[in-house]
Specification:
single chain; 281 residues; alpha/beta; 2-enoyl-CoA Hydratase, Chain A, domain 1; 7-stranded mixed beta sheet; 4-stranded mixed beta sheet; 11 helices; 11 strands; 50% helix; globular; disordered N terminus; binds ligand LQQ7U7AH; mitochondrion; fatty acid metabolism; lipid metabolism
């Protein structure tokens, strides 16, 4: 702990906060003293799956960064193979009602916090970004990805209906016909394919380069008035966030009904068994 803090200071970075779970720091926030840009690192082994605590940690970290007058947020991962594997599927399997409600509300709030952040946001995608991993990257304003990884929302492949706000995440970066085809096919894109359709903005050859490209993007707003920028962004994005801003309870109800249905639970069982069996072969 002390050694890593010393290293952060040597790099001219301040450690703003750590969101702790019982056994590890779920998120790490470092602010570059020179640029004022905060790097928010997802740090939930093994694959940054988003359970209730992880999404709460992400939301709290983003709010803390906004409150500390940082100039922008770069979202990345401490795992050099996986940016995020999306929702923690164990949260959806035979869920206890109270926890499921808290979990889904946290997903809604985490997404709104990122999508409507007052600050410029960028994702340094240094590993696979699947399902909600892709949704988080798409909620940022800019995406830089390393080669050799995959990104996409493959929900329909394993029997999940894609909720409207997740559709909207895609719609804010991709043209409608591309979104329709990608979601209906459950398409997972390689880095090259993602660049071709503009799901990502740039490719970088290392995490450092990705962080630097994200920082340059955030720096491009240096001349913009932060309040005018934030309010304009909110106006531009409000339409896609409307369902969750106006009717979160209705979206929650619809999702809970679907998640607890035998149809969903059966396909989840089969999918989880397939995922686990991969490691037993
Ligand atoms: C209108 C009605 C609305 C209804 C709405 C309801 C439906 C909502 C659905 C919305 C859509 C999507 C939401 C999601 O995000 S679902 C999550 C989907 N994610 C995945 O399918 C990712 C699966 N994981 C992988 O493909 C790979 O793990 C990886 C990310 C490519 C990494 O590969 P790896 O070889 O490095 O690691 P691996 O050995 O596979 O995994 C390590 C252990 O982690 C477990 N694990 C992986 N991903 C998850 C996950 N998402 N949740 C829980 N657990 C996960 C994996 O099983 C390994 O465990 P173990 O070591 O074998 O025990």
């Amino acid at each position: 702990m002390l050694r890593s803090q010393t290293k952060l200071f040597a790099l001219g970075k301040r450690q703003l906060c750590r969101s702790m779970s019982k056994s590890c720091d779920l998120t790490l926030v470092e602010v570059d003293d020179k640029t004022g840009i905060a790097t928010l690192t997802m740090n939930k082994p093994p694959v940054n799956s988003c359970n209730l605590e992880m999404m709460r940690a992400l939301k709290d970290s983003m709010k803390q960064i906004e409150g500390n007058k940082s100039r922008g947020i770069i979202l990345t991962s401490s795992n050099n193979k996986v940016f995020s594997s999306g929702l923690d599927l164990n949260e959806l399997r035979n869920p206890e009602q109270e926890r499921l409600v808290a979990f889904w509300k946290e997903l809604q709030e985490m997404w709104l916090t990122l999508y409507l952040s007052n600050l410029p946001t960028a994702a340094a995608i240094n590993g696979h970004a699947l399902a909600v991993g892709c949704v988080m990257a798409s909620a940022c304003e800019y995406r830089v990805m390393l080669p050799g990884f995959t990104i996409g929302i493959h929900a329909t492949k394993f029997g999940y209906v894609v909720p409207p706000f997740i559709v909207n995440s895609y719609l804010s970066v991709l043209p409608r016909p591309v979104v329709e085809r990608a979601l209906l096919q459950g398409k997972i894109f390689s880095t090259d394919e993602a660049q071709q359709i503009n799901l990502i903005d740039e490719v970088a050859n290392s995490k450092e380069e990705a962080l630097s490209k994200c920082a340059s993007f955030i720096g491009s707003f240096a001349e913009a008035n932060p309040v005018a920028r934030a309010l304009t962004k909110r106006q531009l994005r409000a339409e896609f966030a409307r369902t969750l801003l106006d009717e979160p309870e209705a979206e929650l109800k619809e999702s809970l009904e679907y998640i607890t249905s035998p149809l969903f639970q059966d396909s989840l069982d089969a999918y989880l068994a397939k995922l686990k069996s991969k490691n037993k072969k």
